[in-house]
Amino acid sequence: MAEANAFMQSQEVKDFNEELAKHNLGPLWSAIPVLAGKEPKPQAIPFLWKWETIYDQLMKAKDIFTPDRGGERRAIYLQNPGLKNREPWGWGSATNTIYVAIQLILPGEVAPSHRHTQSAQRFITHGSGAYTIVQGQKIIMEEGDFLTTPAGLWHGHGHEGEGPMMWMDTLDIPLIYFLNGNFFEGHPDHIEKPSTPDDYSIKRYQGGMVRPISDRKPSIAPLASFKWSQVNASLEGLSEFEPDEFDGYAVEYINPSTGETANPNIASWMQKLPAGFHSKAHRHTSSSVFQVYKGSGYSVINGVKFEWSQGDYFVIPNWAWHEHVVTSKEDAYLFSVHDIPVIEKFGLQREEEYQENNGHQEIKSEFVPEAVPSR
Q1: CATH code where residue 113 lies
Q2: The domain containing residue 87 runs over which residues?
Q3: S-S: 111 plus which of 38, 67, 124, 149, CB 3.0-4.6 Å?
Q4: What DSSP line would sit under 7-31, residue for residue?
């Protein structure tokens, strides 16, 4: 092996590799370690963004940008430091495949309707009184609600209430950009006019997970919004039993007409981690982004401790060991998004349990966030 490695570093091999490059050709013998590695080595790295920092920047942005001046949406995306050098703008990547932004809309503002080939979804974190119009359906947004907007559907937002409204946007922008499949179109009427009663699909599904018989045939988005009250009731029902040793109590948002993920390319979960809960560590091929909806604690990711509290966001890249610990007296609720559907479609999803130290990692260092603004 040593002899082979020495030969690969020889001047003879280097000279020939340079000759191939002149002809726009490449040497597989030198590329194999990168192209066919033994396990995933994502460019994305574990990282955490404090809510105080995000909020501070959003408040600065509100005085500079409006939906009508500066790009249709007042949103600041999470830029993973490991992906900063990817063009353009680092692809707006939280992980190699997932884009996450925090959007702010103020009373009286309208974010114009548009549609695109990227799939979108939203988790409402702060405020009340705003709405979204998706394919002619006006949907009132409240804290804790999850909304899905699959690719190709018209969607715009407005705010008829009081105070700022903020939510988490998740899209598959990096994936679609990599595949060169991005298309975008603005709505001719600026904001789409409603064509159905307000909250139409929510009213059709007031019974929870029973569906109108007309939805036996698959539909792309038969239920546009999942209300927090119903999701919380599901978690409370699960809480009568023992929590999963890795994920606590977790539910997945699904398309009720297909039984598959609510968004074709992005899976979304809500997890309840009981006070004092300490999960075991595992890793999987899919990557994840978490929003701390309630509670506080920390996660150990590849031996590094990431402390989180309400409002924070953090990333778990592909194939990274991770476990969660709740330190607050109250239960913690974590909303999360995952690229599982895409990974599974390619048959690449694998999962592995951490075997040492009774399933818990040794903490080798602690993540230090940038200075948090004082208010």
Answers
A1: 2.60.120.10
A2: 47-209+222-366
A3: 67
A4: HHTSHHHHHHHHHHHHTT---HHHH
